Sequence to fold (154 residues):
Amino acid sequence: MKDSSSVRLLTCAATSVKLWSPPNYELAREIVPPHSASQISSISYDHINNRIISCNNVGQGIVVTSLDQDESELLTPEINAVKIDLSFNCKYLLGGTLLGKMTLLDLKSKKVKQTYNEHSAAVSVVKISSRSHSIAASGDKNGGLVSYNIARHS
Fold:
């Protein structure tokens, strides 16, 4: 397998994360996070610390996998996230659950900064703005959309 430092594309399929390298996008590496007994439902790439953050479709916790050390760590299993997004500065992670709860997590301290309970159904998408780093949005299975000012809590 190729060196993962040149990876430019991540994909997740079922129970593994695949890393692809340019220019021909050859498979560089395949990672099977510890929560892979269920399908991976969301991944984010931490470009500062060269790690992948993932969660599965039944909310068995958030897994951080270092690409440099080939080690995985389960973070705060009580969050039960099924959808996640990472802030551009890789400091915060926003996760949504099957019960509609949203959680803002400080990745360095591994502490919950804020929880939000505005959704009435399972969260289906989570996104933190890459431009402002302070605005986030999420959607749920019923079509509900919520925006958040996460700067107040960071």
The radius of gyration is 15 Å. Residues 42 and 83 are 5 Å apart (CA to CA). The longest strand covers residues 40-46. The chain has a mean pLDDT of 86.
